[in-house]
Sequence to fold (325 residues):
Amino acid sequence: MDDTYRLGPLLLLGGRANRPLSAEIGRILKENPESATIRNFADDEIFVRIDYNARGRDVFIIQPTVTPADSIMELLLLIDAAKRASAARVTAVVPYFGYGRQDRKDQPRVAIGAKLVANLMVAAGADRMIGMDFHQHQIQAFFDIPVDHLYAAPVLTRYFLDKKLSDLVVVAPDVGSAKMARGFANRLHAALAIIDKRRAGPNRAEVANVVGDVEGRTCLLIDDMVDTGGTLANAVVALKDRGATKVFAGATHAILSGSAAEKLAAAPLEEFVVTDTIHVPEERRFDRLKILSVASLFATAIECVHENKSVSQLFEMAAEADSGG
Ligand code: R5P
Fold:
């Protein structure tokens, strides 16, 4: 029997961590994402209640797991509520997967936060997961449920292709971003450079060297996330010092914690382009910050999963961009 019929209709639930993104996904899918009551008790404990019949339905819960950890707890409660309301299937749609940087035991006695969060989602009852640009692709293997891992690359590359930047060098701000940057370089028909970044401590980035020719050229820094902005701000200065004429930057997840926005607003950047996987509040926006929406990628993925159709059309452009060898 076709699962489309066995599953019942789709039910979209948006958590509170990124209401504008879930509203946009809902608009595209013609579904109301505000299908749950979510509030806090006086001590900040979270209460959730699904407002519509969920029995037998194919439930999609949209919630990036940004800090504070309440966004994770809210997601877990929504998954639990859907399971207890007899949903046929629950898919966690997590545009930004927080704790993703804690993906291995690289020092004695540290936790592997990414695995723990994955375990919590599965333990709460998630049957599937849809994510985007995990810090490491291998995080998919932390989930013992199917994961559809999307890329923001199609949205970002389209934007930069339209700008028709000449003599372009895509720059990885650290060795970890080199594969992602190489994909963008292929797609944008650009050269590649890599920054050898050292960390003096957690969240303290320093540039050690730039590998590749950037003098007299336009540079595009590409990263999966920008947190304190230290990596990016240092990279822009290093590229300018080495004679880059213009520096653009693109990143999927705009965490922008602390004074990141001020730091980047003051940096000699032509434009900083991010996506809306994380909601950027008005007070953290600045003139040269451009926010592109990935809502249509998520809406298409949700539709494909619901209708048991292949989601590979969403990967093709990114895979092509990533296949530089
Ligand atoms: C590092 O591995 C990541 O790709 C980012 O470069 C990093 O997390 C950005 O952090 P920050 O903005 O605090 O330098």
Notes: Residues 1-5 have pLDDT under 50 and may be disordered.
